[in-house]
Amino acid sequence: MKAAVTAVLGPTNTGKTHLAVERMCAHSSGIMGFPLRLLAREVYDRVVKLKGADSVALVTGEEKIVPPNARWHLCTVESMPEHDAAFVALDEAQLGTDAERGHVFTDRLLRRRGREETMILGSEALRPMIRTLVPDAEIIVRPRFSKLTYAGAKKISRLPKRSAIVAFSAEEVYAVAEMLRRLRGGAAVVMGALSPRTRNAQVAMFQAGEVDYLVATDAIGMGLNMDVAHVAFAGLSKFDGRRSRRLTVAEMAQIAGRAGRHQRDGTFGGVTEEGPGAFLPEEVFAIEEHRFPRIEQLYWRNGEPDYASIDALIASLERRPEPGVLLAAPQSTDLAVLKRLADEPWVRERARSPAMVKRLWAACGLPDFRKLGLDPHTRFVSRVFGYLSEGRGVVPNQWFADEVTRLDTIAGDVETIAGRIAAIRSWAYIAQRADWLADPAAGAERTQAIEERLSDGLHASLTQRFVDKRTTALIRQIGADASLLPVVIGAEGEVLVEDHAIGRLDGFRFTVDPQARATDRRLLLAAAERHLSGERRRRGEALVAAEDAALGIEGDALLWNGHRVAQLLPGPSLARPQLRLDRDLDCLAKPLREAVAARLARWLAAMLDRHVPALVALAEAARDPQATPSLRVVAGELEAAGGLVPRLAIYEPVDALTADERKRLRRIGITIGTLDLFDPRLLKPAAARWRQTLLGVRGRGAVLPREGATVLPRGGLGAQLATGFRPLAAQAVRVDLVERIARSAHDARQGRKPFAPDPALATSMGIAPATFERLMAELGFRTVPAREDAPPAWVWRGRRPPRRAERPAPSPTGAFAALAAWSGHG
Questions:
Q1: Rounded distance, CA 306 to CA 224, Å?
Q2: DSSP SS3 for 259
Q3: Is Nucleotide-binding among this UniProt entry's keywords (predicted)?
């Protein structure tokens, strides 16, 4: 008995898919092919409820759920298995007119048959093709259950609830969804590139009434069942992969037909009344009356290619059909990739056997999920085939693992996460090939887990971006009057409105939650400014009364309880920096702001007096009109350099100091050493940090060495004179230790007689012999010949005044101070 072939034709909302599912479940086994992975998954879930998960399989390019005893298979058209089944159905068969995939639908229409029954589902426009290509098929026309009516053009702000707005690019989808979020509280987003998990989560929000609007691409026209009352077209043009063109009337009808459900009527329309985005009267008439141009031709490509060689494969794929209703399919991506690889000598060298040619063609079938374009996609396929044709013939585990691990993160915006989902689909496709990985089951499990995590992350990102439930609820509750918002400040500075966080108050700075944008941000800022003024005033008063322990400094910033409140700027001198309040304190009243500035100035002065008193005293001495020019120059240079200056840099004014002036410097805390002038207190950790802070304000800060260091490797961290370490030979020695050794050496010598200094002091400090020798030479000693069994002897040769060319130039700041001091105007 010959198996029955039935063609069920008609517009959308006719229950064709539902009828096919019922017929399949009445048979002992069945296979259904769908145009979209999303649709295959939707029907799979429905059949699982009827037959149980152990009996139902889902087969797509990126996902396979095939129980051992599976009898009913729900698949994408490309993934329909070749095994025998009692029932076979092909959904949306009119897609044989698609330039990229049409030949696959045509092949299934011609070659796939059920043992007992075959069902072809499609538009009524497909009737001529069924009559010609499947003449024995019984044609059943299913009328639409409900009426579809044109409702005219409506602005997005005036669309009725339960509307789906259809756009034809991701950018346009996002723009429309953002507009709906601002105007109507949010929208769910559905695109063909979404994973089933993300799509289902988004649709669930729409179906549950959490949002009243859905923004989608034309993917919703392929049988995805949603409770939509009105379909609005954001435009009537799309890019089909080759060019931008106006939708055909059949495509318009396919999408518009999603409006209405079962026997509930639906409407459709546009969002513009004129221009290219507006419907023409004849298009409206055709859609309402379901009258579309008949399909006269379908695309075809040889479904049984020749694998004898690469050239034979290409020739068989480019073979033209017999004259009639079948057209040769345009060159699709897989064939274009094959031709590119065929030009590579190494590919031809490896693809000599039919089995390897077949493997090459399978690799070329890897879809370009990421839409990279032909050249990048070809390089990716080339690398995959390279692994499949060498060694063990599998993709290396390390490469696979590295690439999928790189994608296993939900950080980033909607576009970034969507891009990762597209990328993981390529690796899921590889994992679903039975012999492309050493352990395909583990690879499939890993890619599925990552896709699910990315899908959950994408759903969360879509919801956060396009469904601001928090702000939407508030706007609905209070309208646009921000003064009605009940603002509460949490213990950690979080600003709450009815337990919804709208931002943070850190110190005096209010930061709006980054998830709130555009008009919502303005609303929240207005609310915050109204309700936070009192809290800021309270904080300002607390700052004025703060204990010293609550204040601190980090870099050039003054902190209060860890929050930045002011900044240090260069002042008249190093020890007298300016203090500027942070702009966040502009919110305070002028008297309170001045009180805060005075409190911070008192704290700063107290800290400088406690930690760097010498710098404060040096600043006063450099400007003392009663002091001699020599003292003013020395004090000015010392203060400008942060209390540490090489003696050679100011040799003449130091030698010109009187005994009383030297005593004054010692009272200030300055040690006039053999090599350096310095305040040893500045070498202590706290004082050193303050010193570097003051120098850093003027752009001359340095990295401090580790605390407690006495000797450092030369060139190491902090091993420089600016931090208090004098480089000598291969080491840098702290300047106070250099002076201690100098005094020990001078105490040990007797005039200019040779003597042997005790090396124990230097050794206890960790000073190497070479460093010690260099230091003694710097101090004015020289070695003299000694007996072999005697320790090295040194003799004082005296320190001559350096010539002017030998003396280092003073710092620019110090030079200015010296000039002012010598001129009597310091």
A1: 37
A2: strand
A3: yes
CA dihedral 445, 451, 453, 459 (to 10 degrees): -150
Letter for the amino acid at 744? S
Q: Which of 236, 235, 213, 239 is nearest to 226 (CA)?
A: 213
Longest dimension (CA), the chain: 130
Q: In whole angstroms, give the CA distance from residue 372 to residue 662.
A: 77
- Predicted local distance difference test score (pLDDT) of residue 701: 84
Residues in the chain: 826
Q: Are 181 and 468 in contact (CB under 8 A)?
A: yes
Q: Which tokens in the block code for residue 100?
A: 């990229």
Give me the helices (H) in 497-589, please.
518-544
pLDDT grade for 61, boundaries at 50, 70 and 90: confident
What's the number of CA atoms in the CB half-sphere (13 Å) around residue 762?
A: 24
Count of Cβ atoms closer than 10 Å to residue 406 Cβ? 10
User: Is residue 398 within 8 Å of residue 348, measured between CB atoms?
Assistant: no
Beta strands in 606-706 (DSSP E): 644-646, 671-672, 676-678
Average pLDDT score over the chain: 86
- Could you say which DSSP state residue 97 is in? G
Express each pLDDT in 643-655 by its tens digit.
999 998 898 999 9
- The per-residue pLDDT for range 749-804, each reduced to its tens digit, is 887 888 777 778 888 888 998 898 898 888 888 888 766 666 678 888 766 555 54
Cα four-point dihedral sign 815, 819, 824, 826? negative
**What is the pLDDT confidence band of residue 516, given thresholds at 50, 70 and 90?**
low
Answer whether 799's CB lies under 8 Å from 610's CB.
Answer: no
- Residue 689: φ, ψ to 5°: -65, -45
Write out 473-515 in H/E/C secondary structure. HHHHHHCCCHHHCCEEECCCCEEEECCEEEEEEECCEEEECCC
CA distances from 662 to 277, 639, 707 (A): 90, 16, 30
For residue 805, the Cα-to-chain-centroid distance in whole angstroms is 57
CB atoms within 10 A of CB 282: 10
The pairing of strands 298-300 and 671-672 is: unpaired
- 580 bridge partner residues: 567
What one-letter code names the amino acid at 252? M
φ, ψ (nearest 5 deg) of residue 676: -140, 155
Closest CA to 298 of 494, 158, 128, 533: 128
Is the pLDDT score of 471 beyond 70? no
153: left (phi over 0), alpha (psi -120 to 50) or beta: beta
List % helix, strand, coil for the chain (3-state, nearest 5): 45, 20, 35
Residue with tokens 């298995």: 81
Contact 120, 105 (CB under 8 A): no
Q: What percent of the chain has pLDDT over 90?
A: 51
The reported pTM is 0.58
217: tokens are 């691409």
As given in the structure block, the two tokens for residue 106 are 């045509």
The answer to whether 99 and 299 have CB atoms below 8 angstroms apart is: yes
Q: What is the pLDDT of residue 222?
A: 67
d(CA 98, CA 105): 9
Strands (E), 143-193: 148-150, 163-166, 188-190
